[in-house]
């Protein structure tokens, strides 16, 4: 009997490996928009964050999102994401 493999993803804030279901997916669309993807199924380049504000702040501080998406991210995008994270968490 083989057990089903659980997909793991690394948090861009703390660097911890966790199951995909525990994480929040941050998405870069083909139009270079940065959004939170609650379903985890939208098209685009994804990066993952733990569902805590602490990890979000670490990702902002160490520019984890900017490295993952290889682009500069405006302050307004971070502010909008922070409001969404507060609603989720």
Automatic annotation (TrEMBL):
<dbReference type="Pfam" id="PF04296">
    <property type="entry name" value="YlxR"/>
</dbReference>
<dbReference type="InterPro" id="IPR007393">
    <property type="entry name" value="YlxR_dom"/>
</dbReference>
<protein>
    <submittedName>
        <fullName>Nucleic acid-binding protein</fullName>
    </submittedName>
</protein>
<feature type="domain" description="YlxR">
    <location>
        <begin position="9"/>
        <end position="82"/>
    </location>
</feature>
<dbReference type="InterPro" id="IPR037465">
    <property type="entry name" value="YlxR"/>
</dbReference>
<dbReference type="InterPro" id="IPR035931">
    <property type="entry name" value="YlxR-like_sf"/>
</dbReference>
